[in-house]
Amino acid sequence: MAAHRDTSQPSHTTNQALSPAMPDAAEQLHDIQAVNEQLLISSLRERTSAEYLRRQLAFSTAITTSLGEGLYVLDTADRCTFVNPAAERMLGWSDDELRGRNISVVFPMLPVPAQAVPRFGTAQRDENALFVHRNGTLFSTAYSASPFTTSDGIAGAVITFRDMSEVRRLQRMREEYLALISHDLRAPLTAILGRAEILLRRLTQQGLDRDADSARIVIASSLRMNAMIEELLDRSRVGADTEMQQASVIDLVAVAQQMLDQTIAPDARAQITLHAVAALPVSAKEAQIKRVIVNLLTNALKFSARGAPIAVRVYQQGAEAIFAISDQGVGIAPEHLPHLFEKHYRVKTVEQVEGNGLGLYSSRLIVEAHGGRLWAESTLGVGSTFTLALPLSG
Ligand code: ADP
What we know:
By secondary structure, the protein is α+β, with helices and mostly antiparallel strands. 49% of the residues lie in helices and 22% in strands. A hairpin with a 5-residue loop joins strand 3 and strand 4.
């Protein structure tokens, strides 16, 4: 019996022993519940952020996929990390094939600065670049490359690009068309002008003043029409030239001589004297510099009395080639001088003279794009000198 254990006691004892443990269990349970809750919350959070990430990813994938422009992402070691479908199409490489490969695989023609983007962090643009397709053919592109950063600094660069082949083809067509119009319209006009000048001389010799006046009107109208053709061409060329033309080394003296001989009517040509050195090489877009010279020649004639002398000087000054044209025409008052090169600016007193106020504006843009300068000096009623300075080549 002694061995018999009163089960109530032990149980009591047990209960007594357990009773302090009861809160532990409850706490444990509570802790477990708390942990579970935490797990649930964080799993919900994870699910929410996973869901959020998934949506973000789907969103950016949808954007990059539907983007018409090519998108090429590279890391700081110039390795490709992503290309979108438009880039795949234009380049002929798939995203899988390009990932991890050096940028030079697809952009061997890309100028160094763009490749330097990830390293130096400067954005680059080029409207006139050439990219190469996988099959080796080159195509015209306009691209912009910009670095992107994370909290660790520059992480890489994004290059977006457009295929410009079609635009370039249309530009070439427009250029050809313009050259054709210019040629076709000018040829008969030159004939009219030449004959009218002969007529004018003969009629003047014979003392037939009234008929001579008619010949003068024919000449003036032909010159006006010539100026209008020039203006038409000027307007349509603005922009196209800048993009299309390549600079080459030209002789400023030869260009000046050529413009005098080819664009000025013979009787007006007689009032212009050219003083020039043998040759002056400048690196320039020839057609653009010709436009500037023609604008300056035309202005000197337009704003001078008939027959008034005009001097053109082409010479070297320091590291610059100078083209200076001096007339003895109406001159320009000091208050107008600072505004002459503004768009559409014309001095009111010469309103009766044909013009649109674009010649000097576009001339200065051209000259400055060549790293040169264009300025005017003038005295009202005495005459004006317009000077063009371009850096000498070599
Ligand atoms: P446009 O000759 O078509 O008016 P420009 O831009 O070539 O336009 O010239 C702007 C203005 O500058 C002219 O309208 C004229 O008032 C003035 N100008 C230009 N060249 C001369 C010049 N050689 N003599 C006097 N005024 C001039």
